Amino acid sequence: MVEDRLIGFKCKKCGAIAHSRRMVCSSCKGRDFEEYPLGDEGKVVTFTKLWAIPEGIEQLPLTLAIVEFDGNVRVTGQVLDEDIKTGDKVRPVWGNIRKIRGKEVQGFRFQRVS
Amino acid sequence: MTKFGRHDERSLIDLMTESSIRALEHAGATEKSVDAVYAASMLAGELNNQTAIASALVDQLALFPAAAERLENGPAAGASAIKNAYCGIACGMYDTVLVTGGEKMRHVRAETITDYVATMTNMEEEYVHGITLPSLAGMLARIYMERYGVTREDLSRVAVKNHLNGSKNPYAHIQQPISLEGIYGSPEAEVNNPVIAEPLRMYDCCPVTDGAASVLLCASEKAKEYTDTPISIAGIGHATDIMAVQDRKDPAVLEALRISAVQAFKMAKMTPQDMNLAELHDAFTILEIVESEDAGFFKKGTGHVALRDGVTSLGGKLPINMSGGLKARGHPVGATGVSQVVELVWQLRGEADKRQVKGARRAFSCNMGGFGNNVVSLVLERS
Amino acid sequence: MSEDVESILAVDWDIPWKEYPPKLVLLPSGERMVIREARREEVPKLLQAIRPLLTVEKDFYDIVAARLYGEVLGWYRHRARNEFVLVGIVDGKLAGISNNRAVDQKTHVSLHTIALKRGARAGAHMFAAKQENSMENLGAEEILVTAESPIGFRRLISQWCEPRPGVQHELGGAKTWVITRDIYKKVKPQQVFGSRPVPDDLLKRSATFEIAPLDWVPRK
């Protein structure tokens, strides 16, 4: 199930891995991909606390981060911990991330691994 | 250009028409014909109910039957329009082209603008999580603080510098100088400069602005018909990078700027060190620092040192954003790239009054669409 | 006869009143704003300052101005109980006005805040000053707050208050939020600033104020 684990995509031609779902590989322009689980633990590369939150988001401030997984794969997402720091280890957690035009949208957020 | 700021009573097409007339008057071209009109606007359809803004502009200016098109490249629409105008002339199809960028955005709620601007990000990887441009700038600032020792004081200094420059620019949106103490360091700074996207605060972000700017381009051999001091576009560069910041090789490098700047300097047969001044795209203070490096002016990670040393202030070796930049001159999205060139033309002609860079002969500008993933760089020279 | 009716209708302070100690606040521009309590005889000038805003629809300035006008006039003509008005003065010019009134010793009502000098965070400082006056100078335990404009809500209420459901604010029965003693203590370090005492010469110069033309208000 999509909620179970964070999945990326690996290019079958050149082996490049990214979280982004693409039709054309950004490294070699290949068009064949296979799913690649990104693992349960990533490291925070950078983060911010956003006080000017967009519509459909309720947490104020909203903590956002870019998280790096094994193989230099980076994923952007919300962070559940208030006091996150660069270098913290986090794990992906499935849930409601925001509303878009009133409709609830689900996805992965990050929570610090104690 | 029109004054940038709040234009409640005027429509977008009014602003763009006024700006165009001013440019035509400045060039003594009000009676002459124009072969093409390029209009640059990011949100004319969405916010002003005016699609086909280029056709509307030709109509208002009575410039028919000139060819007319609108360019959309986010906040780089202005420079993109200038690039295309150059191409139209260089290929021999047109002799004279008017470029006008404009945006009217202040009549809309701040949240709505933030949302429209956020649609420039990667939908599935960034937008859906609540990513906005300020949040991307905040994350870039954090990397710079942790990797290169840039401080909040450095960021505030960019704002202070650009507000000072803006105060000398009668066209700037914000002409009020600010003090470093008022926005950083004093207890009152907590209220004066509230957090937007940590570590960025209110005075690290450019305002929402209404306004329009225009330039008239013509074939080099015809320039003397219009002016004794023609300014030539010596170099153009335009490059893109992968859209989602997470997917870039190094999220702290504006690769599209690097490539487009190299292209522009190569075409101009010049180097960054030949430049007397620059207009950079400081939608956020951190961007001025990063761009000053990735455009080739300073080594990576030392842009803030140059700032501290006064190199980028008036009187320094490479004054940046004498117009006030996006921070103080304002950022009517489609107009910005054109207004950067307007400022540089005035500077290179010695018409920049209190903010004049003495003896300015060569200048650089960069205009960013998206968050650094689509950049148009220009090199201008006084012939 | 008329004196008897006036003494029936007139209201003033029926709880202990202490003058707001003037303070100096640093603005982003580096300019300094003196915030002090207004004097009754300054009201005609305040009304003159507020008048041009009565027709400015943008950001709900018109309703804020209309209600503030009535409140300030009410205080002047002894038809408002326990109301205080603060003025912010920059370089001898009126920059902001804010007012509260006390229902009783314990409960104050936050009325209005208006910034005449825009882009200087004057409103935020004027709002903070009147809450400071109510809480610290006059000893309130809670302040009932509402907002008319989205900007007022976004910038001021969301940072200061928590909801007080089931209560109608005296400004048109609007939704009510509250600043309690505990909330004030928590918020104060991030919102309430200023230095005291105001230097003598500056205080003297700020004893009166001029009304600067509002260049941001469309002329009708």
Distance between the termini of chain A: 26 Å
Largest interface: A-B, 34 and 36 residues
Order of helices and strands of chain B: HEHHEHEHHHHHEEEEHEHHHHEE
Largest sheet of chain B: 4 strands, mixed
Figure out the total of helices of chain A: 0
One letter per element, helices H and strands E, the order of chain A comes to: EEEEEEEE
Q: Which radius of gyration of chain A do the C-alpha atoms yield?
A: 15 Å
CATH class of chain A: Mainly Beta
Shape of chain B: globular
Which structural class do you get from the secondary structure elements of chain B?
alpha/beta
Query: What's the total count of β strands of chain A?
Result: 8
Strand order of the largest sheet of chain B: 2-1-3-6
Count of DSSP H/I helices of chain B: 14
Domains of chain A (count):
1
| Rg from Cα of chain B | 19 Å
Query: How much helical structure, as a percent, in the residues of chain A?
Result: under 10%
**What amount of the residues of chain A lies in strands?**
over 45%
**Cross-sheet strand order for the largest sheet of chain A:** 6-5-4-7-8
Sequence stretches where pLDDT stays below 50 over 5 or more residues of chain A: none
Keywords:
heterotrimer; B: 383 residues; alpha/beta; 4-stranded mixed beta sheet; 10 strands; 37% helix; globular; C: 220 residues; alpha+beta; Aminopeptidase; 8-stranded mixed beta sheet; 7 helices
Notes on the structure:
The complex is a heterotrimer of chains A (114), B (383) and C (220). Chain A has one domain: OB fold (Dihydrolipoamide Acetyltransferase, E2P). Helices cover 0% and strands 50% of the residues of chain A. Chain A has no helices and 8 strands. Chain A has a 5-stranded antiparallel sheet, with no helix packed on it. Chain B has 383 residues and is an alpha/beta fold. Chain B is built from 14 helices and 10 strands. Chain B is globular and about 55 Å long. The model of chain B has no long low-confidence stretch (mean pLDDT 96). Chain C is of the alpha+beta class and 220 residues long. Chain C is built from 7 helices and 8 strands; from the N terminus they run H-E-E-H-H-E-E-E-H-E-H-E-E-H-H. Chain C has helices spanning 2-9, 43-50, 61-76, 122-137, 150-160, 181-191, 200-205, and strands spanning 23-26, 32-37, 83-90, 93-102, 107-115, 142-145, 162-163, 177-180. In chain C, strands 1-2-3-4-5-6-8-7 form an 8-stranded mixed sheet, sandwiched between helices. The mean pLDDT of chain C is 93. Chains in contact: A-B, B-C. The A-B interface holds A 18-21, 26, 45-57, 61-62, 64-66, 74-78, 86, 97-98, 100, 105, 107 and B 110-111, 114-115, 118, 122, 124-126, 128-132, 134-135, 138-143, 146, 194-200, 242, 244-247, 251.
